[in-house]
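job 3f2a | input accepted
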Amino acid sequence: MKTDELREKYLSFYETKGHSRRASDVLVPTWDPSVLFTPAGMNQFKDHFLGRVKLDFTRATTCQKCLRTGDIDNVGRTAYHHTFFEMLGNFSFGDYFKPEAISWAWEFLTDKKWLGLPADQLTVTVYKDDDEAADYWHEKIGLPTSRIHRLEEDENFWPASAPSLGPDGVCGPCSEIYYHPKGSSPVEIWNLVFTQFNRVGDPPNNLEPLPSKNIDTGMGLERTAATLQGVTTNYHIDILRPIVEAAGEICGVKYIPEDDNGRRLRRITDHVRACTFAIHENVYPGANKEKYVIRRLLRRAVLDGHQMGLREPFAYQLVDKVAEMMKAGYPELQETTQRVANVIRTEEENFLDRLDDGLARTEKVFNSMRKDNMTIVDGGEAAELYQTYGFPPELFEQVAAEKGLAFDWPGYKEAMERFGEETGGGTSVLFTTGPIESLKNTLRKTDYVGYDQSEADVTVKGIVANDADGTSKLFDDYDQTGEEHPLIVVTDSTPFYGESGGQVGDSGEIVGADFRFLVTDTQKDSDLFLHHGYLTSGKISSNTDAKAIVGERRIGIQRAHSATHILHYALQKNLGAHAQQQGSKVDEDWLRFDFTNLAAVTPEQLAAIEEDVNERVAASEKVKWETVPLAQARELGAMMLFGEKYPDPVRLVSMGTFSRELCGGTHLTNTGDVGMFEVVSEEGPSAGVRRIVALTGAKAKEYRQQVAASLGDIAKSLGVATLDVPAAVKQLMQYVRDLKKAASGSGKPPEDLPLAVEHAKAAQPTYAVQKETLKETARMINVGMFDAPARIAALLSDIDSLKKEIVARAEIGVLTADDLLAQAELIGDVKLIVAEAPGANPNVMRQLIDQLRKKAAPCAVLLIAGQGEDKVMMVAGLSQDVVKSGGKAGEWVKTVSTIVGGSGGGRADMAQAGGKDPAKIADAVTAAKAFGKKMLG
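job 3f2a | predicted structure (937 res):
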């Protein structure tokens, strides 16, 4: 039986048993912080199992895309391990239980209409105390007791060892089904989990029966396909063997299953398949969390290729083959093969650039270990190699393992914590508990009424706050007022939008007859809306009626959110269909929009994008939304984001005829209400992803005013027309550089500053020209746009001080290194030079000291100079041979500076200090000579 046929048969079978066929969840469930990737079919149904959502169905069946890395080192080595795999499952939420789960599993496996496996080649396991399951297998199914094995909790309980070790929460025994191929080892193909307990505390008597029992089963698609196709490894089934063979052709290696290259080709197949699915969902290789996992998988594949002699990118060539073999279950993969291949190739190129160097450095580590008879790679060295050269520790471990060496993971993690660069990310508690979860169990959901109204009559259903010991709990009523007493209020319905889809939560107030509650933020937890804030007056009680009023900030949020849809359209128009949303955040008249693009957006492209958005705003096109079936939304051409899982029906937001997106956020009714749209910045937050920050409405207007004012301030300070600002700034910077040279004694003073005046009578430029002029000016002086006026003012101020230094230097004449050397006192073989350098600034003093250290080493020099009536500067420098003998310039100036009422310090070879009393300079010189003699012995 073909793998695609098996997938369809399973889902069809359970549909005949009254199950709702549900789509696979995405690989990265952003709604669930407890996991990086979807690890099992039950993940998307966690709230269904707990009864925290309205149940539109009580039976479900899925084929779930999964990604796990717990057994990554076994991938390619064993017959059945993968990182990416598909899990067939059937689920019951308080509906059927063990009898049905067991009998249907047996029917599907053995009935010739379905899989038709020989019954005498199947055995089962049950939890040691689960007499109910064991009896059903024996008495109803007819399995002899010799083929029913009772196992301990670490094998046949979910989560493993939960009765003894925890965690607390939903759990239950399981029953595994094994197939015994003739002449081969048995294979576990199905696990039936019976979630029937709530674990509370430590044993004994810590398993409380659940009032509503559930079923969660998982059948490995690849394992079962291998069983049905009579092959000894999953990698030889009909959808994987062709990818393995293609990998061999690309790598120029014949696939021989038993040799090392065979193992490498299987691992490449697995890792490229996993990365293809992940990158399709816009999970690009990166430095943290799920992105780091994808980078790690790709780099392992590249290392395998490198060990087979490849020195150029190759893995990207497998993407088309993966999409071809997986097209029956996932036809959408073929829409993004070029983008996915480009991302993989870029990552390969980046890693190959450093791989040879990294391998050479690991070899040095191994050689050193051999000399010292060490068998464990030092974690600190691995961390250093990762920090300095980007060589992943997992690859270090892999190379070490091939040489029979172990890897010090605790030492590596400790070193990385010192570096502050821990990557990846773990998981948190699978099922959480607490007052919010209690409200979910009773209220289930909050009805959202905010799409068409900003005020609503509501009833308070839950009040959550911290009690005296800081524990979060439910209150029937609450009367402490002020920001220092934060509350969460839950109502039966709400017009407040809860933060989701990148849109921030609404603020406002909820007002009852006896209280006023200020809402500072609104969050969502599943279908429950949580109003965060505090009481400003009165006492709030459960089951009281109130008026919920959304604040005016909502309008600014809607402007920004509608602008993101227009921006999305403009990005795809100017950059291509690949420029899909990677993430966003919209607040009051402010938006941040991340999108896929391998290269930075050019200034010309950015200007065109901004112009297109403003044209759509000026066109004042109608914005509307409607709830339609998902299939209809597709037919209408709605933009579907890869990596997003959509409900059915969906909310379709349309803007004119140019934009159709599926979106749950709040919007304007006309694009013209966006007002203005201003791009503030464009940058790359991670590999393959670009980010635009922009403003709308009032903030965009303020931004434009600030551009005009900043450019006007610069023009006024320079005395030139606005269009002449860049040229004048260029002249100013050169003038300041020339003055600095003259002040340091290495150049002549320049002529007076000439400034451009070519456009003095020109008309006022357009806003677009003003903005570009200010940007150009800011780039020249390497500051932000709105920091440019202050920087120009500082440069102008520098001119006055530099001119004074030049005058002072001229008054004191030219002090040379030879002049100072003539004053040297010999202490042993070291020349001690302590002198006053009237009018010299610290730069001049450092230059003189450097000349002396080159010309007269070994030497110790301290120079001191008055700077006006109330300032003293001193600089000390030691040649390296004096430093090696224990001399410390920092201690020298620190001690002497106290005499002139100051302080300072620095390195052992060069240090600087300041003071406030020029009248004490002579005393300081005497003290400096005494300290110098003592320091030099």
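job 3f2a | The longest helix spans residues 337-371.
job 3f2a | closed
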